[in-house]
Amino acid sequence: MMDKKESYFEAALSDFMFDVAAGGAIRHLVDRGYSIEQIMKRLDYPVPRPKVEKAVYRHLMESGILLSKLPEEDEKIKIHLLQEKDREKLSRMLAEHIEKYGEHNSYMECPFGQWSKNNAGKLQQVLASLSAREREYILGIRWEYPVMYHRLNSRMREIGMKLAGNTDEEWRFYFWN
To answer: Is the pTM of this model over 0.90?
Structure first.
């Protein structure tokens, strides 16, 4: 019985120490759009990649940058879907929708979890149109659900535009009141 209490205490103490030493810096760098590799290079002391990935994923989920599902549509929430292939039109429509609904209510559908688990070749093919920095960002996220939704912050909007303009996949962008 004592071993469970001790291991629980040790785990809690370890989490607390990690948060004090690196957690705040990781959250700050995530908010600035840094990839896992960029974050690891900027930390004051070495942190194992899985621990950084876990902290990044947790922050993305807790802050609402990454969603496992969209809000339920009802009379208060009307979800608008954009599926435009013309890059110029899509850019204009995204800018208008983000301005109208706000960045906090603007998301892109991301099937990266599904591809990373079931079709790594397709994932690499789709990501080939991105810069190394953009690929690094996408591949550094733990896509724990087959399809997730990433807020259309400046980084994801840039990525979404490239993917929509350079791949044959159907990319969906969601906005709500």
So the answer is: no
